[in-house]
Structures
1.
Amino acid sequence: MKITFDWLKDHLNTNLNEEKLIEQLTNIGLEVEGIEKLSAGNELFKVAQIIKIKKHPNADRLNVCEVDIGEKKSKKVVCGADNAREGLITIYAPPGAIIPKTKTKLVIAKIRGITSYGMLCSESELNLSDESDGIIELLSSKYKKIIGKSYFSQSNLNLIDLSITPNRPDCLGVRGIARDLAASGFGMLKKIKEKKNKSKIKQNLNVIINKEKTQGCSAFGSCYISNVKNTESPQWLKDKLVSIGQKPISAIVDITNYVMFDINRPLHAYDADKIEKGIIVRNSKLGEQFTALDNKNYKLDSGMCVISDNKGVLGLGGIIGGIRSGTEFNTKNVLLEAAYFNPRSIRTTAKKLNLDTDAKFRFERGIDPLSIEDGLNKAASLIKEICGGEISKIDMQKIGVYKNKNIKFDPHLFEKITGFKIPNIEMLKILEDLGFKIKKDRKHLKLTVPPWRPDILQEVDIIEELVRISGYEKIKIIDPIKERTKSTLTKSQKLFHFLQRAIASKGYLEAITWSFTDSKYNDYFKDKNKEIKIINPISSELGVLRNSIFSNLIMYLSKNLNRGFRDLSIFEIGPIFTGSNPGEQSIVICGLSAGKKHRLSWIDKERNIDVFDIKRDVIQTLVEAGYNSYKFFIDNETPNYYHPGKSGRLFLNKEKDKVAAYFGEIHPNIKKKIDIKTESLVGFEIFLDNLKLPKKTLNSQKTKFVVSDYQKSERDFAFIINKDVSSQDLINAVSNVDQDLISNIKVFDVYEGENIPQHQKSIAINVTIRSSEKTLNDNDLEKINKLIIETVENKTGAKIRS
Amino acid sequence: MSDLKKIKDEFFSKLKGKLNLSEINQIKSDLFGKSGLISSQFKKIASISEKERKKFASDLNIIKDELQQLINYKINEIQNSEINEKLEKEKIDVTLPERDFVRGKIHPVSQTIDQISSIFSEIGFSIEEGPDVENEYNNFTALNTPDNHPARDMHDTFYLDEKKEKLLRTHTSPVQIRTMLKDKPPFKIIAPGRTYRSDSDQTHSPMFHQVEGLHIDKDINMGHLKGCLNYFIKEFFEVDKIKMRFRPSHFPFTEPSAEVDIGYEIKNEKIIIGEGDQWLEILGCGMVHPNVLKNVKVDPMKFQGYAFGIGIDRLAMLKYGINDLRAFFDCDYRWLNHFGFDPLDVPTNYRGLSR
């Protein structure tokens, strides 16, 4: 909502200045979004006449104009407008002027070899309208006399742009704003001199509101004005509209707009002679069409509230009128409409047709249902004043009656909610100033809500009015008490934070990417999940919810590689989605590592990042988080985006209940398709929701500290074993031989090739044996050795290498 | 000259020369070997007259000690110089680079969330979460934002079905609903998380982060709200004093509602919070609307309290001087390195939020 202080003063007596005004508007909840200097440099734009025109010697589409700007010498201006012609009166902007639309400063410039001193302006360049075809054409009769004078009338006004919250339709008119300001002590609200309609002429055009199940219109007031002479608006009215950024059209249209902005009463003016017989307010039929004032043709659904005549739809009630019945300069007889439309009906229709107008914006928020007659009278008398003619009596059609809203308000509630007190007398004054009617009983205030406040429904709304006008700065600060009765984080939240920092500490940079992604990328990583489409994505590249974090992460990794970084590790912790219902999501920590270790190192040997690097990161992180790596179980069943031979699936224990993590090389096909340029690309996913949370705290998990002081022995074994038997099986077999005696097993060599049969491999392990009861003698050790070899050979089919 | 003196003089002068270890050992055995010079003198003792025996023995012992000391000293000297020589040979250029190390970083949004959690933890808030995909009821209707109400225009919503029943939450406020439906009052929670709106430009990202706050008890009023936010802002920006302004506003789920501005100024191209006469909007808040409480089966006659919603990304931008919101989600390696935090930098109450 745009206003000027000047216009406010039509409704408000005040001595305070604009600076104070702006502060006060914000203080009472009418947020000032911006302040624009209306007239800065405006005096530079002059009424001017083209006296001579020549084709530009070097450009077909340009003309060189001699322009009379009221000075002795004419100015030479290069102009490309088609409508530039000798004798045309238009608007001239000199060098130094700032064009309102583009905010650019004009300079003397050579255009294709001809120097141009300034410019001739179009309406759109001056922000007068959207019209950008050709330069402005001013009426010769009016402007001939003032060539050389400034086009804009002078004022030092600022345009104040307010952000009116959707609960305050009353402040979509200047008077409503003035009322709020007056209530807050910023001046006195002026009384409106009511324009009485003393006409004895009947409104002869028949108006009917059809009784329908869902009738969007509940009241339709109309006034007939005959024998008018529609003209341009007088200067004061034009200035008024221009001052808030509106474009003057004709007196009748301007008057309806003026009344709307002034008292928030939308009106519509019909050329009465174009209405066939009478007006019927009814629901539209499927497929009905009409051309609206925006020159667009609309095809209607059934059930939209339309104003129609015998021939068909005249307009969409409360949203937009139609071309067929619009007023023009030659309009003789006018029918003025002021109606009440149901906000929901307006909103549904406008949304379906994707239409937004000033009237719609107001009706969908709720217009004062009792403002019909005031609005009609105000507009009709202005029309009579400016365009002449005879005004009829008002015809009022209604279905249903407006009932006053009454609220019983307990003044004590104010302190209970706000924490501070205001005197009763102040309360009463505020409410009265806002238009409430008040009756007091012993404990309560019985309030009648003014009809322009559809937002006020219950006691708490009254409290808001009181605290808003009284001032939020009066709310006292009550310092919070530092005490904690409940732990801040749950166990799973603690795990989230721990894993996040554990992974970062292994050299990964944390990224945050969007929860949606490109379906093309998502396809690579969705595995068995189904795609979840967003119905209205901002772009097709962000059209689906991610089934995996990899899709975004790999895209950004690739971007970074293209920036010239070669060895990168990034991770993200966040949601992935398995369905479109709330809760069908889980938290994953997903990382990618690319490139080499020890690139260009003088001391270490350079090598590609590999699966065992990323496996270490996963295992170490889980161990740090408190999970026992001896219980981990790994197999190679992984989703199809991993290299099938170089990836693993990890469970926290052998029971394989839920997958704790995947790790491995990204499938070479995906690397190729994405065209990612790196020597090696490995990744992992840890599924937080699948990690069992320990019942005990880490503290109570710590067992008694026991160590064995008896000597340990180490023994090496080399087994030849089938290639497809995993080292995990071999190690398990060994450790199960005697869990008390075998304290550590290390794989120190894996070998295939010469001297080893085909399809077999050699695994060499080092086993630490130690008893907690005694020092083992040779005999004991020999026994264990034998048992280890026997067990491994039996369980895994391995053979000890002699 | 006695024999002893002769031996002493001879060997002292011998030992003063430059000798290697084997030469010294030769000397050692010449003197103290089985038939060494000193050893043979000791054998003489018995045959010396009683009168002279005592002095002879004493002189011999002194000479023996002196020679031994000198020999030990020489051996030591040689060993030291050999070690030094060896160490000298082992010398390396320690200014050569160390082995590679990599440093991970925590995203500034994560760090900010941890800071926020730490601050609110101190005054008794615990952390709740909710899903990113919400139903229309929790996101709007239960929050007193009925279908077909203009207030919904303030949220450009991403939908997941044609009926517009499933959506990406446009704010963290549905966590209020979930929390209150799940438990019984009092409630004192914050809920940080991802939120989504379908606009995208320099200052808007289709995904951003909010933290919701909710405190419901028997007598929680706007003074508590002001106190809580005043405390939070001061702690968060780590300043002693802030300028804060409550401005009336409108949110369907709070009544009365307020927007909160903080005072700032720009000094040397840096934003200083808490000084100056510029205002910056940082959050929305208000007293939870009775309709919302009714929707979650909390009796508004018995319980009341406040809620707030803060843009996390915006707070991080202010605190760390980050200009472009979009950069948060662009994953530029350089940016992440520049604005990221060391994983060991965990914000805590006792150590402070930042180093």
2.
Amino acid sequence: MTYLTKPKFRHPALEKNDLGFTRRDYEGAISTLCAGCGHDSISAALIQAFYELNIEPHRVAKLSGIGCSSKTPDYFLGQSHGFNSVHGRMPSVLTGANLANRNLIYLGISGDGDSASIGLGQFVHCVRRGVNMVYITENNGVYGLTKGQFSATADRGSKSKAGGTNNDSPIDLVGMALMAGATLVGRSFSGDKGQLVPLIKAAIAHNGPAFIDVISPCVAFNNHPGSTKSFDFVREHNEAVNSLDFIESRAEITVDYAPGSVQDVEQHDGSIIRLHKIHEEYDPTNRVAAMNYLQQHHEKGELATGLLYLDPNPRDMHAFLRTVDTPLNRLGAKELCPGAKALDAINNDYR
Amino acid sequence: MPKPVEATNDFVVKFANVNGSGSASANELFARSILRMGVPIATRNIFPSNIQGLPTWYEVRVSGEGWVGRRGGVDLMLPMNPQTWDKDVASIDPGGYLFHDSSKPLPPSKFRPDINVIGVPLTEMANSRYQNPRDRQLLKNMIYVGALGALLDMEHGEMEKLVGEQYAGKERLIKPNLEALGLGRDYVREHLKNACGLKVRRSDKVGDRIFIDGNDAAALGAVYGGATVAAWYPITPSTSMAEAFGAHCKKLRIDPETKKNRFAIVQSEDELSAIGTVIGAGWNGARAFTATSGPGISLMQEFLGLAYFAEIPAVIFDIQRGGPSTGMPTRTQQSDLKICAYASHGDTKHVLLLPEDPGESFEFAAEAFDLAERLQTPIFVLLDLDIGMNDWLTKPFAWDDTRAYDRGKVMSAEELEAGKEFGRYLDIDGDGIAFRTLPGTHPSKGAYFTRGTSRNRYAKYSEEGADYVDNMQRLLRKFDTAKALVPHPVIKHAQHPTRYGVIYFGSTSAAMGEALVSLAGQGIHVDLMRLRAFPFADEVIEFVNAHDQVFVIEQNRDAQMRMLLVNEGAIDPARFISILHYDGTPITARFITTEIAARLKAFGKPARTKVVS
């Protein structure tokens, strides 16, 4: 019930991050989703990631479309501006917001209905434009808010709660993102906080289009036998290619791992993504190989998770457009209006 | 044989060409030469939705009086396109002139006995002088321009000067073009002395006016108005506006030190994405716009409702074309009033600005960004193809350097810190406009959740009937506030008291001004009111109430402006008489004069039926 405010009371010994914020400062309104919903775990992971990264909540802008997933930005980062836009169109709104002020962190929250059906076009185009953002789909393979219709990511042959079988081929958002040019691509599971939190942190630090597909079972309409997006199914078929730590540039690197099983990737801002390789042959910096790997494992009915692709030196839309460093929303008439004298000269060009 | 038409600085020349044949720049050179002689002109491009091979026309009205509307009729026709020859020849006014390529003999049936035929062997001349097929085609165009100039007694030196300006930087093209111009001129001097009774004589009627199309002007207005984000999808006839914005920005918006851009232009994947990007940028405090046409407006409906209800500044330039559906993509109409005024589902009302020409397109474009941020709502600037894609003689652009941008009610971090009450939808000032905050403003105050769902004054989700009604009533108050802020109508009273009024707007203005003079010549006096915006200021309704009958002149089938007047002013529909022109060509003074005179003749029993052109 969003109109219920959370009590402000907090334990005096509650841990604080470097900015002096407690985890509570990163929370939002009370969730109205079903108890046990995977989406709430993702919100918790987001709270954890922003808390650990010492990011001031108000420097984040949260944008979403329509659906269960798109409601969640109300449930975390209560001190951030949020924009619950229209169905499937969050990517364009986020693009515009990013153009106006390049200095904020843009978090796009969407779902499989929002991004794989009505919004597939905007999703792909936003990615290919190189918008600097963290784009998360909370993917449950089902339309929860309208009570259980298949979504476009539902696997062929998957059973609905009402007993129907899905005949249509699934859309693989991870494959789409790789093809469209996302420079950080990951997949995770809402039930795997250990993998999800560092993945989100890496995406936040990433200076380009970062996409994370999070399989998030719908406890009300897609958590039954026959579903390929249920808790049990995902746990059984989860093939993690790696697990990761995210290490900020200023943190001292102390932990040692056995050589050969660890790969450090340094991002543009100096932060390091430390990958514990579970599948030795998997190279997350090779986009084409990543696409092949994913397809092969999908054929086997396995769900590859982890950091699937990373370009450590991405470029973003502002670099492509060569925009000034000052956010466009801070420019005034002095910088924008050429003035009367210039206009006289322009008039002359039209005589 | 009627008497050959004789006229100085008052006639219409029309060129019929095939598009993609290079005729456009030659024809424009002809038109600009007349301007350089100080004689006002009005030009119209009539072109197909196609790149190469279909008929296209270019009409030049020479008007010493300075009328910039379309007159109607043709005095001198140049049918350079065999496909349309018969129709073109038929369109010449009796006593007018046919200027044609006489290289191949044509049977007498291809001509008319009541017109004057002037033949110049253009193809023969071009082929004997030039070897390269492309040169033959392009320079043939220049030969006819040279010949035409000589026929009309134009100053050859002005044409030569323009050739020099047009090819500045491509010097090797200047010589052959000058030569071709001369070939045409010499042929006429030798063979066709006094063949044409139409003349251009140097005058001083152009003054300091400039010659520019409305899309270019609106784009420049957007630069001056502080637009930094443009998102658009190509669609005729709006494309050239987005492109002109880019061209102006490249000259006027580069940071002198870093050479980086103080603007961002995104060519979106469709119109939905374009308006979404504009809304995102507007939400985040940048001045943003899109340029589109009717089909784009149809696609943007859902987002326009969001911007209305969530109260986000946005500027939409709609360069109207013939609808519905794909309609007539390269023809003009004023048929998007209704869909813009009430865009999206549910109860909405939107602000429309209605410029009359490129001069006002510049002004209104700049002003639209102030209005959007002041009113926190979409502002539509409605041009049409006639204004947008034709060059018009218009007053030079002016800018007051003391003018500041109105960024509207945006609460700052300092105000929040000082404890000023913030409610995103809280009407503190009674004008229906609430304060907003921009993302990232303050660490712990002023954040809110923007949504298209109903909410209370503090932006909390609410489905309470009272909250919803409270919000909808405030939006009405805001719309009422807009009445005083938008450009007011321009009213012009007749010299003699009259019971008849005329309402018009947009590109009809040029033709209406001229029609007024010819009506007065027939002893018909009417008061005029030119609408410049929606919502209607109070004087609009007062004007209607002060007249027994009011003509409403529009370029659409369904009298959409009349609909808005009846609806918003709660006026008896019987007071209005619609004059409607919607065949895709720009309305003419002749049409308006004839229609109004005919209706008034029939009074005491006033005709109230619609007239279709």
